Amino acid sequence: MKEKKRALNNEIRASKVQLITDFGENLGEMSLNEAKIIATEQGLDLMEIWKNEDLSIVKILDYWKFLYRQKKIEQKQKQKWKTPDLKTIRITFKIGEHDLEVRRKQAENFWEGHHPLKITLMLKWRENQYSEIASEKMNKFVNSLAEYYKPEWQIRKSWNTFIVMLKPIK
Q1: DSSP secondary structure of 30-64
Q2: What is the pTM for the complete model shown?
Q3: E strands, the chain, in order
Q4: Distance between CA atoms of 63 and 50, rounded to whole angstroms?
Q5: I want to staple 56 with a disulfide (CB 3.0 to 4.6 A). Which of 14, 29, 47, 124 is the partner?
Q6: Spatial separation of the C-alpha atoms in residues 109 and 92, rounded to whole Å
Q7: What is residue 82's predicted lDDT score, i.e. its pLDDT?
Q8: Tens of pLDDT along 92-140?
Q9: How far is CA 140 from CA 40, 67, 88, 131, 168, in A?
Q10: Domain 87-168 class?
C-alpha cells in the first residue's frame, strides 16, 4: 500500500506548527514562517507529519535521506517475506554413482539458497518389483544430505513413486 505524499516546505498550509527536529527534540509551537527560517538556516526541509485544523506537527529533516531510508526499510521487509522456491530432484532406480554425486552437489547449491527440497524416485515397469531396493536407494541419498537437510517426514510411497520433503538446516 502506497503512503500518501506528505506536504513539504511551501505545501504546508497551517498558520501554527509544532516543530520537531530530526533527532526527535520538540522545539514547541511557532508560526510557519519561523519554522521555515529555522529549516533554511540548517539547510533542511520541513515535512508535515500530522495535520489538524489549527495546528500541524512538522519535522525538520533532509527529505532525500528520509526517502532513501524508507526505501531501504521497504526492501528489507520484502526480503523477510520472500519465501524460497521448492526445488525438486528426480532420481531413477538405475541411477549411477556419478549421477547421484551430481544430484548431491545440486542439492548443496539449493541449500545455499535456503530452498526446501523435494526428492522423487519413480519406478517404471518391472522396477516396481524392487521397491525395497528403491527405498534403500532413497534412504542412502537422503542420508548423504544429512548435514544440509533434514526430512520433514519419512519417505512415502504413493503408487510407483517414492517422495520425501527436506528442510534446509540453517
Answers
A1: EEHHHHHHHHHHHT-EEEEEEE-SSEEEEEEE-HH
A2: 0.50
A3: 16-20, 26-31, 45-51, 55-61, 87-92, 117-122, 149-151, 156-158, 161-168
A4: 16
A5: 14
A6: 20
A7: 66
A8: 877 888 888 898 888 888 888 888 889 888 888 887 777 777 778 888 8
A9: 71, 53, 17, 14, 18
A10: alpha beta
Q: Give the right CATH number for 9-79 from 3.30.559.10, 3.30.450.40, 3.30.70.270, 3.10.20.80.
A: 3.10.20.80
> 44 with 22: CB under 8 angstroms?
yes
Q: Which pLDDT value is given to residue 142?
A: 86
10 Å Cβ neighbour count for 42?
13
CA–CA separation, 99 vs 97, rounded Å? 5
Q: What is the dihedral of CA 120, 96, 169, 143, to 10 degrees?
A: 90
